[in-house]
Design goal:
The protein is an alpha+beta fold. It is built from 6 helices and 10 strands, in the order ααβββββαββββαβαα. The protein has a single domain (25-170, 179-203), classed as Protein Transport Mog1p, Chain A (3-Layer(aba) Sandwich), CATH 3.40.1000. Helices cover 36% and strands 25% of the residues.
């Protein structure tokens, strides 16, 4: 029996490329250390210039070249933006820790930097999570904070850029390189108000599309 268990563990290690470690239900710092100390072994989202992994339980509501909106099983929505221009030019990310917030910390794992900022409100948290030139913003239910942060961390950890493709896309033409973003990557200009404006606009457009489709179906009956 011991041999069978050892063989099974060895097989899982070969398949997943990492050890099996339980995440803590309440300890954000411990979970970040566990997740970011490992390496992504698989990818399920591919674009020109980069790829990443989306954990099970998340689904795409909207997916564009450098932006995406995902939703988890608790209906929390994650707004993701990959800043390929800043990555290509290796622009440093600056963040000042704010001790007055619910959580504020600079991240530095595997020679990649970022920050995690969490603002607390009456019934939710507003999260800004940046790592490896990628940002995820979300308004999270208080009961789901650690679960959502773990999902975000797995996505951010897995971001992998393709320098050759980005060279052909961006190269020396950065001034002519334009992209539409859901959020502003610079933490000095990104705020809860900016984020909620984007959310409101997006959800308003989705509601209008749904009503229009509903009207079309009624007209065709």
């Amino acid at each position: 029996m011991k041999k069978i268990v050892l063989l099974l563990c060895s097989f899982l290690l070969m398949v997943t490329g990492c050890s099996i470690t339980n995440l803590n239900e309440v300890d954000v710092d411990k979970n970040l250390d566990v997740i970011f100390s490992g390496k992504a072994s698989s990818y399920n989202v591919n674009y020109d210039g980069y790829k990443y992994y989306v954990p099970k339980g998340l689904k795409f509501l909207n997916k564009q070249e450098y932006n995406a909106i995902l939703q988890d099983k608790y209906s929390n929505k994650y707004y993701l933006y990959v800043d390929v221009v800043s990555y290509f030019h290796k622009i440093e990310i600056h963040y000042d820790v704010d001790g007055s917030l619910y959580y504020s910390a600079v991240l530095n794992y595997n020679d990649k930097t970022g920050y995690l900022q969490i603002d607390e409100f009456k019934d939710c948290y507003f999260v800004q999570f940046v790592y490896n030139y990628t940002k995820i913003e979300a308004k999270i239910s208080k009961n789901n904070l650690v679960y959502a942060l773990n999902n975000m961390a797995y996505i951010l950890r897995s971001i992998k850029f393709n320098d050759d493709i980005l060279e052909s896309l961006i190269g020396e033409n950065v001034l002519d390189y334009k992209e539409e973003t859901f959020t502003l990557f610079d933490d000095d200009s990104s705020s809860q108000e900016d984020f909620l404006d984007v959310v409101s606009k997006y959800e308003g457009e989705e509601y209008k599309k749904a009503k229009d489709q509903e009207q079309i179906e009624l007209d065709n009956q």
